[in-house]
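Lab manual, section 2.4: Encoding a predicted structure.

Procedure: take the sequence of the chain (299 residues), apply the prediction step described in section 2.3, and record the output as C-alpha coordinates. A sample record is shown.
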Amino acid sequence: MWLTLAFTSAALLGFYDAAKKKALTGNAVLPVLLLNTFFSALFLLPMIISAECGFGWFDGTVLAASPGTLSAHGLVLLKSSIVLTSWIFGYFAMKHLPITIVGPINATRPVMVLIGALLIFGERLNAYQWTGVALALVSLFLLSRSGRREGVDFRHNIWIIFIAVAAVAAVASGLYDKFIMSRLDPVFVQGWCNLYLFGLMSVVIGILWWPRRRTTTPFHWSWAIPLISVFLVLADFAYFYALHQPDAMISIVSMVRRSSVVVSFLCGAVLFRERNLRSKAVDLAFILVGMVFLWLGSR
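Recorded output:
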Protein backbone atom coordinates (compact mmCIF):
# COMPACT_ATOMS: atom_id res chain seq x y z
CA MET A 1 0.00 0.00 0.00
CA TRP A 2 2.69 2.50 0.99
CA LEU A 3 4.67 1.77 -2.21
CA THR A 4 1.59 2.45 -4.37
CA LEU A 5 1.07 5.73 -2.52
CA ALA A 6 4.73 6.63 -3.11
CA PHE A 7 4.40 6.08 -6.89
CA THR A 8 1.15 8.09 -6.93
CA SER A 9 2.96 10.91 -5.14
CA ALA A 10 5.80 10.73 -7.67
CA ALA A 11 3.51 11.16 -10.68
CA LEU A 12 1.76 14.13 -9.06
CA LEU A 13 5.12 15.71 -8.20
CA GLY A 14 6.10 15.61 -11.86
CA PHE A 15 3.01 17.62 -12.81
CA TYR A 16 3.69 19.92 -9.83
CA ASP A 17 7.14 20.73 -11.23
CA ALA A 18 5.67 21.43 -14.67
CA ALA A 19 2.97 23.74 -13.24
CA LYS A 20 5.62 25.49 -11.16
CA LYS A 21 7.84 26.08 -14.19
CA LYS A 22 4.89 27.46 -16.17
CA ALA A 23 3.78 29.79 -13.34
CA LEU A 24 7.30 31.12 -12.74
CA THR A 25 8.19 31.88 -16.35
CA GLY A 26 8.62 35.66 -16.52
CA ASN A 27 6.95 36.06 -13.14
CA ALA A 28 7.88 37.28 -9.65
CA VAL A 29 8.91 34.27 -7.56
CA LEU A 30 7.87 35.22 -4.03
CA PRO A 31 4.22 36.15 -4.78
CA VAL A 32 3.80 32.87 -6.67
CA LEU A 33 5.14 31.01 -3.65
CA LEU A 34 2.85 32.98 -1.31
CA LEU A 35 -0.22 32.09 -3.38
CA ASN A 36 0.90 28.47 -3.48
CA THR A 37 1.02 28.34 0.32
CA PHE A 38 -2.34 30.16 0.51
CA PHE A 39 -4.19 27.75 -1.78
CA SER A 40 -2.52 24.72 -0.18
CA ALA A 41 -3.60 25.90 3.29
CA LEU A 42 -7.11 26.65 2.02
CA PHE A 43 -7.63 23.11 0.71
CA LEU A 44 -7.00 21.50 4.10
CA LEU A 45 -8.49 24.22 6.30
CA PRO A 46 -11.87 22.44 6.71
CA MET A 47 -10.10 19.36 8.16
CA ILE A 48 -8.16 21.51 10.63
CA ILE A 49 -11.28 23.45 11.71
CA SER A 50 -13.22 20.20 12.16
CA ALA A 51 -10.48 18.70 14.34
CA GLU A 52 -9.82 21.79 16.46
CA CYS A 53 -13.52 22.59 17.03
CA GLY A 54 -14.62 18.98 17.49
CA PHE A 55 -17.14 19.07 14.64
CA GLY A 56 -16.26 15.57 13.41
CA TRP A 57 -17.04 16.39 9.78
CA PHE A 58 -14.49 13.89 8.47
CA ASP A 59 -14.58 11.23 11.18
CA GLY A 60 -14.10 7.73 9.80
CA THR A 61 -12.40 8.97 6.61
CA VAL A 62 -8.78 9.38 5.56
CA LEU A 63 -9.29 13.16 5.89
CA ALA A 64 -9.87 12.99 9.65
CA ALA A 65 -7.34 14.93 11.75
CA SER A 66 -6.72 15.17 15.47
CA PRO A 67 -6.14 18.31 17.55
CA GLY A 68 -2.49 18.78 18.39
CA THR A 69 -0.57 19.58 21.54
CA LEU A 70 1.84 22.50 21.88
CA SER A 71 4.81 20.17 21.31
CA ALA A 72 3.13 18.75 18.18
CA HIS A 73 2.72 22.26 16.78
CA GLY A 74 6.38 22.93 17.54
CA LEU A 75 7.41 19.87 15.53
CA VAL A 76 5.29 20.97 12.56
CA LEU A 77 6.50 24.58 12.75
CA LEU A 78 10.10 23.35 12.53
CA LYS A 79 9.18 21.27 9.48
CA SER A 80 7.50 24.30 7.90
CA SER A 81 10.68 26.37 8.33
CA ILE A 82 12.80 23.68 6.65
CA VAL A 83 10.30 23.29 3.80
CA LEU A 84 10.09 27.05 3.23
CA THR A 85 13.87 27.26 2.96
CA SER A 86 13.83 24.53 0.32
CA TRP A 87 10.95 26.14 -1.56
CA ILE A 88 12.40 29.66 -1.71
CA PHE A 89 15.73 28.47 -3.09
CA GLY A 90 14.06 25.87 -5.32
CA TYR A 91 11.54 28.29 -6.85
CA PHE A 92 14.25 30.78 -7.80
CA ALA A 93 16.31 27.96 -9.34
CA MET A 94 13.29 26.62 -11.24
CA LYS A 95 12.63 30.07 -12.71
CA HIS A 96 16.17 30.50 -14.05
CA LEU A 97 17.14 26.93 -15.04
CA PRO A 98 15.69 24.49 -17.60
CA ILE A 99 13.32 21.98 -15.98
CA THR A 100 15.27 19.22 -17.75
CA ILE A 101 18.26 20.17 -15.57
CA VAL A 102 16.39 20.87 -12.33
CA GLY A 103 14.47 17.59 -12.48
CA PRO A 104 17.48 15.28 -12.69
CA ILE A 105 19.33 17.22 -9.98
CA ASN A 106 16.33 16.83 -7.69
CA ALA A 107 16.23 13.15 -8.58
CA THR A 108 19.54 12.66 -6.76
CA ARG A 109 17.92 13.50 -3.41
CA PRO A 110 17.49 9.81 -2.46
CA VAL A 111 21.27 9.51 -2.55
CA MET A 112 21.54 12.32 0.00
CA VAL A 113 18.78 10.73 2.08
CA LEU A 114 20.78 7.51 2.22
CA ILE A 115 23.95 9.41 3.14
CA GLY A 116 21.97 11.26 5.81
CA ALA A 117 20.69 7.97 7.18
CA LEU A 118 24.27 6.72 7.17
CA LEU A 119 25.59 9.70 9.13
CA ILE A 120 22.64 10.43 11.42
CA PHE A 121 21.03 7.05 12.06
CA GLY A 122 24.13 4.88 11.71
CA GLU A 123 22.78 2.92 8.75
CA ARG A 124 25.20 1.11 6.47
CA LEU A 125 25.05 0.98 2.69
CA ASN A 126 25.32 -2.33 0.88
CA ALA A 127 26.92 -2.96 -2.51
CA TYR A 128 23.71 -2.22 -4.44
CA GLN A 129 23.23 1.08 -2.64
CA TRP A 130 26.82 2.17 -3.16
CA THR A 131 26.38 1.37 -6.88
CA GLY A 132 23.27 3.57 -6.92
CA VAL A 133 25.20 6.40 -5.25
CA ALA A 134 28.05 6.07 -7.77
CA LEU A 135 25.67 6.13 -10.76
CA ALA A 136 23.92 9.22 -9.39
CA LEU A 137 27.27 11.01 -9.03
CA VAL A 138 28.19 10.05 -12.61
CA SER A 139 24.84 11.42 -13.79
CA LEU A 140 25.53 14.75 -12.07
CA PHE A 141 28.89 14.98 -13.84
CA LEU A 142 27.26 14.24 -17.20
CA LEU A 143 24.45 16.68 -16.46
CA SER A 144 26.97 19.44 -15.78
CA ARG A 145 28.44 18.83 -19.25
CA SER A 146 24.97 19.00 -20.82
CA GLY A 147 24.26 22.21 -18.92
CA ARG A 148 27.34 23.93 -20.32
CA ARG A 149 25.86 23.63 -23.82
CA GLU A 150 23.04 25.90 -22.58
CA GLY A 151 25.36 28.30 -20.79
CA VAL A 152 24.80 26.71 -17.36
CA ASP A 153 28.18 26.33 -15.64
CA PHE A 154 27.66 24.16 -12.56
CA ARG A 155 30.72 25.63 -10.82
CA HIS A 156 29.90 29.32 -11.31
CA ASN A 157 26.12 29.49 -11.69
CA ILE A 158 24.29 30.96 -8.69
CA TRP A 159 21.09 29.10 -9.59
CA ILE A 160 22.87 25.75 -9.41
CA ILE A 161 23.90 26.72 -5.87
CA PHE A 162 20.26 27.60 -5.17
CA ILE A 163 18.98 24.22 -6.38
CA ALA A 164 21.69 22.50 -4.33
CA VAL A 165 20.62 24.36 -1.16
CA ALA A 166 16.99 23.51 -1.94
CA ALA A 167 17.89 19.85 -2.33
CA VAL A 168 19.81 19.71 0.96
CA ALA A 169 16.91 21.36 2.82
CA ALA A 170 14.47 18.93 1.17
CA VAL A 171 16.60 15.99 2.29
CA ALA A 172 16.62 17.34 5.85
CA SER A 173 12.83 17.64 5.62
CA GLY A 174 12.53 14.07 4.34
CA LEU A 175 14.61 12.63 7.18
CA TYR A 176 12.63 14.71 9.66
CA ASP A 177 9.34 13.51 8.14
CA LYS A 178 10.03 9.91 9.13
CA PHE A 179 10.60 11.09 12.71
CA ILE A 180 7.39 13.11 13.07
CA MET A 181 5.12 10.80 11.05
CA SER A 182 5.62 8.09 13.66
CA ARG A 183 4.21 10.53 16.25
CA LEU A 184 1.55 12.61 14.45
CA ASP A 185 -1.31 11.92 12.04
CA PRO A 186 -0.84 12.84 8.35
CA VAL A 187 -3.69 15.36 7.98
CA PHE A 188 -2.62 17.26 11.10
CA VAL A 189 0.96 17.51 9.80
CA GLN A 190 0.00 18.51 6.26
CA GLY A 191 -2.77 20.92 7.24
CA TRP A 192 -0.88 22.81 9.92
CA CYS A 193 2.36 22.75 7.91
CA ASN A 194 0.57 24.56 5.07
CA LEU A 195 -0.92 27.12 7.48
CA TYR A 196 2.47 27.81 9.06
CA LEU A 197 4.04 28.04 5.60
CA PHE A 198 1.49 30.68 4.59
CA GLY A 199 2.20 32.67 7.76
CA LEU A 200 5.97 32.47 7.36
CA MET A 201 5.76 33.31 3.66
CA SER A 202 3.59 36.36 4.41
CA VAL A 203 6.38 37.67 6.65
CA VAL A 204 8.98 37.02 3.93
CA ILE A 205 6.83 38.84 1.35
CA GLY A 206 6.34 41.81 3.68
CA ILE A 207 10.08 42.14 4.29
CA LEU A 208 11.71 41.16 1.00
CA TRP A 209 9.26 41.70 -1.87
CA TRP A 210 6.55 44.24 -1.06
CA PRO A 211 8.87 47.24 -0.42
CA ARG A 212 10.78 46.51 -3.68
CA ARG A 213 7.89 45.26 -5.84
CA ARG A 214 8.09 48.19 -8.29
CA THR A 215 11.79 47.64 -9.03
CA THR A 216 11.80 43.86 -9.45
CA THR A 217 10.14 41.39 -11.82
CA PRO A 218 6.41 42.23 -11.87
CA PHE A 219 3.84 39.68 -10.74
CA HIS A 220 1.11 38.49 -13.09
CA TRP A 221 -1.66 35.96 -12.50
CA SER A 222 -1.43 32.53 -14.10
CA TRP A 223 -3.87 29.65 -13.83
CA ALA A 224 -0.84 27.43 -13.34
CA ILE A 225 -0.52 28.92 -9.82
CA PRO A 226 -3.53 27.12 -8.27
CA LEU A 227 -2.52 23.99 -10.20
CA ILE A 228 0.79 24.05 -8.29
CA SER A 229 -1.17 23.80 -5.05
CA VAL A 230 -3.55 21.12 -6.33
CA PHE A 231 -0.76 18.81 -7.44
CA LEU A 232 1.35 19.53 -4.35
CA VAL A 233 -1.46 18.90 -1.84
CA LEU A 234 -2.39 15.61 -3.51
CA ALA A 235 1.27 14.53 -3.80
CA ASP A 236 1.99 15.35 -0.15
CA PHE A 237 -1.23 13.67 0.98
CA ALA A 238 -0.16 10.41 -0.68
CA TYR A 239 3.40 10.86 0.67
CA PHE A 240 2.41 11.44 4.30
CA TYR A 241 0.04 8.49 4.28
CA ALA A 242 2.78 6.32 2.80
CA LEU A 243 5.18 7.30 5.59
CA HIS A 244 2.44 6.78 8.17
CA GLN A 245 2.38 3.06 7.36
CA PRO A 246 4.36 1.14 10.02
CA ASP A 247 6.47 -0.77 7.48
CA ALA A 248 7.23 2.22 5.24
CA MET A 249 10.94 2.83 4.50
CA ILE A 250 11.96 6.45 4.00
CA SER A 251 14.88 5.45 1.75
CA ILE A 252 12.57 3.68 -0.71
CA VAL A 253 9.76 6.26 -0.49
CA SER A 254 12.27 9.03 -1.18
CA MET A 255 13.72 7.12 -4.12
CA VAL A 256 10.31 6.37 -5.64
CA ARG A 257 9.17 10.00 -5.26
CA ARG A 258 12.11 11.19 -7.35
CA SER A 259 10.89 9.10 -10.28
CA SER A 260 8.72 12.20 -10.80
CA VAL A 261 11.66 13.37 -12.93
CA VAL A 262 10.28 11.23 -15.78
CA VAL A 263 7.04 13.26 -15.85
CA SER A 264 8.79 16.63 -15.47
CA PHE A 265 11.36 15.69 -18.13
CA LEU A 266 8.60 14.82 -20.61
CA CYS A 267 6.82 18.10 -19.78
CA GLY A 268 10.07 19.98 -20.39
CA ALA A 269 10.36 18.35 -23.79
CA VAL A 270 6.72 18.68 -24.88
CA LEU A 271 5.49 21.88 -23.18
CA PHE A 272 8.64 24.00 -22.89
CA ARG A 273 10.56 22.80 -25.96
CA GLU A 274 13.85 22.63 -24.08
CA ARG A 275 17.10 21.79 -25.83
CA ASN A 276 19.79 19.05 -25.72
CA LEU A 277 17.19 16.44 -24.79
CA ARG A 278 19.18 13.52 -26.15
CA SER A 279 22.22 14.10 -23.94
CA LYS A 280 20.01 14.91 -20.94
CA ALA A 281 18.08 11.68 -21.52
CA VAL A 282 21.37 9.77 -21.13
CA ASP A 283 22.02 11.62 -17.87
CA LEU A 284 18.49 10.79 -16.73
CA ALA A 285 19.00 7.13 -17.59
CA PHE A 286 22.03 6.96 -15.27
CA ILE A 287 19.91 8.42 -12.46
CA LEU A 288 17.03 6.00 -13.04
CA VAL A 289 19.35 3.00 -13.14
CA GLY A 290 20.93 4.30 -9.94
CA MET A 291 17.46 4.49 -8.38
CA VAL A 292 16.86 0.86 -9.36
CA PHE A 293 20.07 -0.16 -7.57
CA LEU A 294 18.98 1.83 -4.51
CA TRP A 295 15.67 -0.02 -4.59
CA LEU A 296 17.37 -3.41 -4.93
CA GLY A 297 19.67 -2.60 -2.04
CA SER A 298 16.79 -1.44 0.17
CA ARG A 299 14.45 -4.41 -0.35
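Check your result against the sample. DSSP finds twelve helices and no strands in the chain.
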